[in-house]
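in:
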């Protein structure tokens, strides 16, 4: 390959210019950790920051990203119970902001640092709003979203033996700031038993017509209630659980003796429901709650008769209406507590 003198001069000038930027590169690098090194303010300013670099560093399409941030970092959060007590619960936090075109990225740790400022305050939506305000300001973003997920404990009595144990509810508190409009949303999973009305009738038919012992099939079932809160009113998690218990009273049990198991069988026989019935029963109770405006009910009956599940989705209001559903939505309803 032939290199002209002019090309050599240009290359030399380029290397010389780069050399001005590189202060000193040692010929041998130390491979031991220096615990005495102190990062001064001047040193920190010298550190490269590619994530917040210019638009020229963007890879792929230079488009706005609706949500970018961190998911599932854990904190102990203090929650107030409706009875006046306080619960400290491990909580998974997801925080994200919008990222405009022409911006390379965000400093992810700022989201966590912003939330840690408020982590010791007893939870309420105002605390989430304060954290959201902080990292919107820190990251210079228009839209933002925070989700707090936890397993919320409530004591539940047995049906007849008067025993008591803790029932746990998967709950997510969500605050969305979109174009300056804020939405407060609660998602709650309610786990219950569903007895198939058709199977119940067929079992009774076998008993009376042929004197054959038969049992109707029932299965563990889950409803995920997503509720947009009225901005002028508040609602307790305990209120949403009570609402679910009125709609479908066959909630799974915690402490059970023989008399409780018999009572549960009777309760299921008194409340047989198809998956369509369940969605409408939850809807009926949600419509009566003034603290809730829009809502969505996602129901999964995890069949003991079939090797597949029966599912239904019912929405009220524009907030949760969508053309496509998440592919793993119904898989995520499996109860693992």
């Amino acid at each position: 390959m032939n290199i002209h003198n002019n090309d050599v001069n240009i290359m030399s000038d380029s290397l010389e210019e780069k050399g001005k930027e590189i202060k000193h590169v040692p010929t041998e690098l130390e491979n031991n950790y220096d615990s005495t090194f102190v990062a001064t303010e001047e040193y920190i300013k010298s550190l490269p920051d590619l994530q917040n670099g210019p638009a020229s560093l963007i890879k792929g399409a230079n488009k706005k990203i609706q949500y970018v941030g961190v998911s599932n970092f854990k904190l102990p959060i203090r929650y107030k119970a409706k009875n006046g007590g306080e619960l400290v619960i491990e909580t998974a936090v997801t925080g994200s902001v919008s990222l405009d075109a022409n911006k390379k990225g965000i400093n992810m740790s700022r989201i966590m640092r912003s939330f840690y400022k408020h982590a010791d305050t007893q939870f309420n939506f105002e605390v989430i709003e304060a954290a959201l305000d902080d990292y919107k300001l820190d990251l210079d973003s228009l839209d933002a979203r925070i989700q707090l997920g936890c397993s919320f404990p409530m004591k539940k009595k047995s049906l007849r033996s008067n025993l008591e144990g803790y029932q746990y509810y998967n709950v997510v508190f969500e605050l969305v700031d979109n174009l300056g409009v804020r939405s407060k949303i609660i998602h709650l999973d309610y786990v219950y038993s569903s007895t198939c009305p058709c199977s119940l009738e067929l079992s009774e038919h076998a008993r009376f017509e042929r004197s054959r012992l038969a049992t109707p099939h029932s299965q563990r079932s889950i409803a995920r209630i997503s509720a947009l809160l009225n901005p002028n009113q508040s609602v307790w998690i305990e209120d949403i659980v009570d609402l679910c218990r009125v709609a479908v009273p066959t909630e799974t049990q915690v402490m059970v003796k023989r008399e409780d198991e018999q009572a549960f069988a009777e309760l299921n026989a008194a409340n047989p429901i198809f998956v369509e019935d369940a969605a409408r029963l939850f809807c009926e109770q949600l419509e009566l709650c003034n603290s809730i405006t829009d809502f969505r009910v996602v129901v999964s009956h995890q069949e003991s008769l079939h090797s597949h599940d029966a599912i239904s989705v019912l929405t009220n209001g524009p907030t949760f209406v969508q053309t496509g559903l998440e592919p793993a939505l119904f898989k995520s309803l499996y109860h693992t507590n």
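note: The two ends are 69 Å apart (CA to CA).
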